Amino acid sequence: MRLQEQDVSRGGLANPAAALTADGGLSAITGFIRKTLVIAELEARKIRHDPTDLLTRAVQPALWLLVFGQVFTQIRAIPTGNLRYIDFMAPGILAQSVLFIAIFSGITIIWERDLGIIHKFLASPTPRAALVLGKALSAGVRGLSQMLIIYLLALLLGVQLSWNPLFLIGTLVAVLLGASLFSTFSLIIACMVKTRERFMGIGQVLTMPLFFASNAIYPVAIMPLWLQIIARLNPLSYQVDLLRALMLGQANAGDVAVDFLILIAVTAVLIVIGARVYPRAAT
Amino acid sequence: MPILETNALTRRFGTLTAVDSLNITVEAGEIFGLLGPNGAGKTTAIKMLTTLLPPTSGDAKVVGFSLSEHAAEVRRVIGYVPQMLSADGTLTGYENLLIFAKLYDIPRQTRETIIRDALAFMGLADVADHLVRTYSGGMIRRLEIAQSMIHQPRLLFLDEPTVGLDPSARRMVWEHVRQMRSEYGMTIFLTTHLMEEANSLCNRVAIMHLGKVAALDTPEALKQSIGKEGATLDDVFIHHAGSQLESGGDYREASRARRVARRVG
User: Which of A19, A153, B108, B147 shows the smallest number of beta carbons within 10 Å?
Assistant: First the structure.
């Protein structure tokens, strides 16, 4: 009844374990990056098969800019210094729409857990942090589509955008970073709550305070003190700050660096936590 | 040397001992079945053996690597098809395999050939570029098995491979599992709550009841062991566990089984 075990390296398939343990740290790093990108590629392929989601996601920021933005620019109710209100709020709305996509992205974790997709990924030789970072970049991919839409709308509304290539690249990175930050936060929540209903409830509870307790649609200076404190602790404020500086071309190198550092640090901490809680989704 | 050897592998959830001091040995090249009702601890056992769930105590050697010390190495040499639906319906069959080929570090030069071969082997060459959500339940299962074999694992874990499938799709999956063993010399470890599956597919069967192995042998020997004329594996199970094979499981198990059945059906 016993069968002879055959040589499994058929068709040029070298033993991958040997290949990977042979060389050291550098290949581990490139392997990590490669696998992170594979997870993001997965998301890009999904979007390519069904891009309708991107279009429906464009409706909300369009309404904010066209309705809220237009009206408040007319009535000049919010003091924004020498900026027109529509210029002030356009970067805020980009940050907002990226936040909304990212904060609800964790629902796919619950969905994939219920199906069994997560189990298969976790049983593969993919570093946990690469899975989590890949998911974060996936939200970033969707965030970039929002960037495109908001740039188009902003053009239409005559927002004074900067077309300096350096600032454009900076904006792109800021969008990826913001999406990564909030989607990883979302992943951590998804790994803890485990049911779709509870997750959606928490998502709803979080988005509005994150949005309104930030400098997205009004300056921090006009807030009461307690709200100013919350706004300073809110990572979204730093993302908005960064986007405003880069999109409108009023970047001060020092401020931009500080904003980037804060966002990178928070994202890194969240990725580390995410990599610890993500495997629990399969237990 | 056995390809899989567990040593008092135990998992507790609070006061419940889902897997209680499991000691089994699987030889290279066999199809080994873990048979038991829902809630017997089969999935918990397979989750520990595939590194998804850390054991509370005990350990196992999977293809020579210790679960507790070399989980990363274990992941390279095993394949795993979860009980639930694990193929991504929003991608094509080819893309499902492509993503995993990349995650398993299959070199770019051979990737395309290996993926096409695996799809052809599972009889899915014609639908390779269709979205998986258009597949039937049996096709999805075969795709998932194709996905788990592209890196030529030494040991393949199948958790309830035919749950929710109709009899003809079920037979087709069995046929492919047998072929994988004979063509690639792969060792297959599967769980099932279907006697027929254990009987016709497995070389050896461990009957699991309340987290423990109640009996372990070839299906024939198990049936003879209870000394009853024309005994079935169900009789063997009743003999050892004192209850029906098809009973058991809680609300969550039942709802999950039905959800899976609905999706793959």
Answer: B108
Spatial neighbors of A15 by CB under 8 A, at least 6 apart, are: A9
Q: How far apart, in Å, do the first and last CA atoms of chain B sit?
A: 40
Residue in chain A closest to B47 (alpha carbons) equals A283
**Cβ-Cβ contacts under 8 Å, A35 against chain B:** 102-103
CB pairs under 8 A, 24+ apart, for A219-223? Answer: A219/A78, A219/A79, A219/A80, A219/A81, A219/A88, A222/A78, A222/A79
By Cβ distance, the residue of B76, B131, B185 closest to A16 is: B76
ipTM (interface pTM): 0.89
**At residue A4, does pLDDT exceed 50?**
no
* Backbone torsions φ then ψ of B159, nearest 5 degrees: -95, 110
CB contact under 8 A, B104 and A125: yes
Residue scoring higher pLDDT (A229 or A10): A229
* pTM reported for the whole predicted model: 0.87
Rounded to a whole number of angstroms, the distance from the CA of B263 to the nearest CA of chain A is: 9
pLDDT by residue, tens only, chain B of 265 residues: 899 999 999 999 999 999 999 999 999 999 999 998 888 899 999 999 999 999 999 999 999 999 999 999 999 999 999 988 889 999 999 999 999 999 999 999 999 999 999 999 999 999 999 999 999 999 999 999 999 999 999 999 999 999 888 999 999 999 999 999 999 899 999 999 888 899 999 999 999 999 999 999 999 999 988 888 888 888 888 888 766 555 445 565 556 556 555 554 4
Residues of B in contact with A11 (CB under 8 A): 110, 113-114, 117
Closest CB to B29 among A2, A35, A50: A2
Count the Cβ atoms, other than its own, within 10 Å of residue B117: 17
Residue B210 near residue B219, CB atoms below 8 Å: no
Domain B4-82+89-264: give its CATH architecture: 3-Layer(aba) Sandwich (3.40)
Tokens representing B12? Answer: 């507790």
In angstroms, rounded to a whole number, what is the distance separating the alpha carbons of residues A109 and B136? Answer: 24
- What is the rounded distance in angstroms from the CA atom of residue A30 to the CA atom of residue B178? 38
